[in-house]
Amino acid sequence: MIAIYIFITIVIAQRMAEVMIANRNAKWIVSQGGYEVGRDHYKYIVMVHSLFFIALLIEVSLSRNTATTWAIAPLIVFLIAQVGRVWALSSLGRFWNTRIMILPGAKVIAKGPYRFLRHPNYVIVITELAVLPLIFQAYWTAIIFTVINALILSVRIKKEEQALQEVTNYDAIFEKKKRFIPFRDSKN
């Protein structure tokens, strides 16, 4: 059981480090003339992600499930998502953020996983919230937070795309790229 708590603590520490990076990047964007969009819903994103880890820890503690061999599948998916996370974040560099930070006139970055789809980082977050609890058989956490996350992302993505369309070359770069599933013919 201790190993489970250590694993979850490492993931939480990773997220806290990312928030520090995001804050540093936000200061840089503002210093370049940028601004934040969607501040009104950001607090809900923070709340959902915080409650996700609390719920995960509670469900894991209360269920006291034993490790199963099939848990290796969601663990592998989670670890692959971590590689994707690093790829997405490093591709955006100083433009990556947990907030919607807009720098008017900036050229939208379309390298790394952004060559294939508009929102690879959101695909990764969706994957993580779905599979991390499955590693520990925390089914309620997986279901509830996957649904809540989808609702919040439906608001966030609209605001983000609208803001980027207004002051950057977003449409020119991403007009032929899908939001979440690369190489898909129908609009997603």
UniProtKB/TrEMBL annotation:
Membrane topology: Multi-pass membrane protein
Residue ranges of the TM segments: 41-58, 70-88, 122-152
Coarse class of the protein's main subcellular location: membrane
GO biological process terms, semicolon-separated: methylation
One Gene Ontology CC term in the entry: membrane
InterPro entries, sorted: ICMT_MeTrfase (IPR007269), Metal_cation-efflux_comp (IPR052527)
GO molecular function: protein C-terminal S-isoprenylcysteine carboxyl O-methyltransferase activity
Keyword set, alphabetical order: Membrane, Methyltransferase, Transferase, Transmembrane, Transmembrane helix
Compartments where located: Membrane
PANTHER family listed in its UniProt record: BLL3993 PROTEIN
Protein name: Isoprenylcysteine carboxyl methyltransferase family protein
